[in-house]
Please model this.
Amino acid sequence: MDHKSFHRWFCEIDHLTEAQKAKVLETLADHPPGVASVVAVEQSVGADRTCPHCQAPGAVANGKNRGLQRYLCRSCKRTFSTATGTPLSGLHHKDRWLEMATANANRIIP
Model:
């Protein structure tokens, strides 16, 4: 899944059916909570490693920051992580992301 597709999917997570939410949680349940959160987010960078800034493919791995892979775009020379451009960008406590998403998805709106 490319970065844009993941971002669109993630922004629509509140609109998933209960069965779809259960399937997502079931898939991620095979990993410890912190690892599952990172695995879910890191799937957003596709095989072509498209830069979210200039849309050029071919970014190269450039270390890790707080457990997330960083990439360097060969075209614009900017760096990005798998969370860049997502609602998770800048958030800490990756081990709690799925827990918070689940709580948010299950909240009751009066």
